[in-house]
Amino acid sequence: MEKILEVKDLHVSFDTFGGEVKAVRGVNLHLEKGETLAIVGESGSGKSVTSKAIMGLIPNPPGRIKEGEILFGGKDLAKMSEKELQSIRGSEISMIFQDPMTSLNPTMTVGKQIMEGLIKHQRLSKTEAKSRAIELLKLVGIPNPDTRVSQYPHQFSGGMRQRVVIAIALACNPRILIADEPTTALDVTIQAQILELLRDLQEKMGTSIIFITHDLGVVANIADRVAVMYAGKIVETGTVDEIFYNPQHPYTWGLLGSMPSLDTSEEELIAIPGSPPDLTDPPKGDAFAPRNPYAMKIDTELEPPLFKISDTHYAATWLLHEKAPKVEPPEAIKKRMKGMASSKPTMVTKDGERNG
Amino acid sequence: MGRYIGGRVVSMLVTFLIIASLTFFLMKLLPGTPFNNQEKMSESQIQQMNEKYGLNDPVPVQYVTYMTNLFKGDLGVSFQQDGRSVTTIIGERIGPSAYLGFQSLLIGTIFGLLLGIIAALKHNTFLDYGSMIIAVLGISIPSFVIAGMMQYWVGVKWGMLPVAYWEGFEYTIMPTIAIAAAVTATIARFMRTEMLEVLGQDYITTAKAKGLTSTAVVIKHTIRNASIPIITIMGPMVVALMTGTLVIEQIFVIPGLGEKFVSSIMTNDFPIIMGTTLFFSILFIVVILVVDVLYGIVDPRIRLAGGK
Amino acid sequence: MSMRQEQLPDLTDDMFQPADIDSSKNEEIAGESTGFWKDAWRRLRKNLGAIIGIVIIVVLSLLAIFGPMMNEYSYHEQDLMRAKLPAKVPGLENVGFLGLNGVDIRGVDQYEAKGVDEYFWFGTDEFGRDQWTRVWQGTRISLFIALAAAFIDFVIGVAYGGISAFYGGRVDNILQRIIEVLVGIPNLILIILFILIFEPGILSIILALAVTGWIGMARIVRGQVLKLKNQEFVLASRTLGASDGRVIGRHLIPNVLGQIIITTMFTIPNAIFFEAFLSFIGLGIRPPEASLGSIINNGFSSLQIYPHLVLYPSIVISLLMIAFNLVGDGLRDAFDPKLRK
């Protein structure tokens, strides 16, 4: 597999009145060609900031990339000029956003909004761009694209708008698509359609996807690999199977435990106590320790390194140290993991061979 | 859309009728007649004049006559100027006022938009604060103060521009600045707020994510969307312009409608006061209607809602 | 994703003992909680413009109250022997560029020429009346008119808007139709007609300003109440059996109050301006009473020779308008941080 994107030790901070908010504190990740990487975490864990940093869309001021590299095609995006970034945005890397109701310009026809990128990056004429826009609308499954192309966003439903947003993002055949919670604002039935569309398009176009979400159900559905983020760091990363069947980090257990499924009864839902730490003053040691029922003394003093579990599976918790007591995930989560195993084949509809 | 405009025109006519009636009856309540403060007239002369202008008829008769004439476009005749018709006088006087109004509106809008856009794009910088200080001053300092200061310094002391009268372009500069100051300030503040609002919208991020240049994002997505709501403050703007011309024409001795209106107040020339009042009201009502319709045309979201 | 396991320092066994972590700490809220008013006050205090505005208002109000008493002249005391004197201030008379040395624009020391020994801080007008006394007397009247008009707007507007929104239905419908008609009439016209009918004077000016002024307030209050009325905390309170009075007193008024204060704050400079404006079109305060507007208007006739007659009242009215606008802006930012960018 070919690595097309590599993020190394990324630090992003925001300068606010309350002080410097260290939103991303040393993230390492990579993306392979044609794969889908899911970044999972609570709100404020830094997953969106990471993706915006890759796009070069961190508003500056107040935000800035303090350290680290974002390597794409042999170049470091973190050090590129705005002009160079503009030529990459939308053509090599594009992004779709959470809320389709607000991410389209209400006073411009959807056709024009799709055409903008095509005219800029592929230097198409207006008529060429328009016919390409119609093709794209058709590709993302919008009926009557010929008439729809000259309509305004408010004439579309939420799901249809998200399809338009996807069409805009895919207009120039980007190599990487960053999807920032693209289904969160949609109805459940529409969510499934959009996920299926993304999977479909990925197969057709070979795009790599970074999928940002807080919904593990969606992750199981779409991702090849998963990175779990907490307080600006990646705490566990592995393939979907590894994260779902053999999670190692207590935070991942917590996430899995708080995910309802059909066969969990009420008392088996485990909430993670407390709330994420204040990132203006991140705690010493493991940021998760205050919420971790398995916390050890070392957690309050030293930050855990990434422990290797397999070639693809790493987790940052002292529980994996040889001197640590052997801790088993809570019963409920173990049961859930088994449940997941039995329900999984039915969840994966299209590409069973990938997880099979 | 057609039905919507139709409805609006009807309610416009109703408003106009109310204003016309109100003006008429309020005038009737005025103490004294326009002729009794001119010492040179004898009692019988005053009677004669009252007779001539129908001021001795019962009020309802006068009302009916007035309203009928109104719909024929006849606003009556001036008491003071030997029976010249009010319509003619308004026609003569409208030129300088309209010129001054349009020029001020145009200049004020251009500078206001520029100031607002710069302030928003350079948000929280020296340029932003500077623009907003100018805007607060423009809104706060009354037009007659600006006019007075300019007359004294620019006109009298430095002798750069004519102090008064209306005899060519250079005569319009100071009056225009005096009126345009408030327009500039109002539009600048409004535009800044709208720009900042739009700049925070998700679709601006979408536009940036497409790889558009910053200039394209600002022009095609931000300024365009931010300037649409400016239309909504055009109504109050026109009122401000009317207020402005009334005072500024006085100060600069400009032979406009506002100056005539004020001098008619001094001489109790009812038909002119009524006529000008109605004229200003019609202007205001029409502007409001045009603004609403225009807004519907420019903003696609409203266009559709109105069409249902 | 490098492996850094090897570089770790020696770790002792006891470090892997369970840690005592007081999980209740997690739920604590950092920082003290601040109420709506306290929060607004804190934000207002940080707003430099608003603070400057408040200081100017306080200073000008004090001068409006005590200024006329600060010298022995009264505002209507005429003496043609000392007419049209420029400003002369003891101490500052030696600072040339300030123009406070009693020398007029032709370079003649009018005090010497007319043999006047006294000092007139803002000079005198064509009847020899002391401008200092008149300007502050005028400020007093302008402020009084503006405050009175704002108060009437406030009372009528809040009552009208509140009733309209709170009772809704037919009441609302009728009240709103009335407003629609009134809004169609330019307020300028109404004010002028109103003053034409009643003799120009303080009372008729106040009433004229109030005739149209309350509409803005009524609309804002109605809009706010309508918005709040359907919000869930009001519904919750009703569900718990709260009476109309309690809902209005505990939920609606406190939440609308911010908007009301802001609107009132902007009404005041507006009223000051309109009062001055009326003087300009000959419908202002009649002599010997004076307002800032009428003093400036009088001064205009001799602006070219005696600019001091326009200059000082113009500075005062401008400062007053700037100050009220600054405080209004500051309050808006303080009460509604969402609007602040």
UniProtKB/TrEMBL annotation, chain A:
- Which biological process terms from the Gene Ontology are attached to this UniProt entry? peptide transport
- One Pfam family of this protein, by short name? ABC_tran
- All residue ranges annotated as the ABC transporter domain in the record: 5-256
Q: Which UniProt keywords apply?
A: ATP-binding, Cell membrane, Membrane, Nucleotide-binding, Transport
Which InterPro entries has this protein been placed in?
AAA+_ATPase (IPR003593), ABC_Ni/Peptide_Import (IPR050388), ABC_transporter-like_ATP-bd (IPR003439), ABC_transporter-like_CS (IPR017871), Oligopep_ABC_C (IPR013563), P-loop_NTPase (IPR027417)
Q: Does the keyword Membrane apply?
A: yes
Q: Which molecular-function annotations from GO does this UniProt entry contain?
A: ATP binding; ATP hydrolysis activity
- Membrane topology for this entry? Peripheral membrane protein
Does the keyword ATP-binding belong to this entry?
Answer: yes
Compartment annotation: Cell membrane
Q: Which domain of life is it from?
A: Bacteria
Q: Where do the segments described as Disordered lie? A: 335-356
**Which GO terms of the cellular component aspect does the record hold?**
plasma membrane
What is stated as this protein's family in its record?
A: Belongs to the ABC transporter superfamily.
Protein name (database record): ABC transporter ATP-binding protein
- What is the protein's species of origin? Exobacillus caeni
UniProtKB/TrEMBL annotation, chain B:
Q: Keywords of this protein's UniProt record, alphabetized?
A: Cell membrane, Membrane, Transmembrane, Transmembrane helix, Transport
Going by the entry's taxonomy, the superkingdom of the source organism is recorded as Bacteria
Q: Which locations, inside or outside the cell, does it occupy?
A: Cell membrane
UniProt xrefs under Gene3D superfamilies: MetI-like
Q: Provide the membrane topology annotation.
A: Multi-pass membrane protein
**PANTHER family of this UniProt entry?**
DIPEPTIDE TRANSPORT SYSTEM PERMEASE PROTEIN DPPB-RELATED
- What's the family? Belongs to the binding-protein-dependent transport system permease family.
* Protein name in UniProt: ABC transporter permease
Source species taxonomy = Bacteria, Bacillati, Bacillota, Bacilli, Bacillales
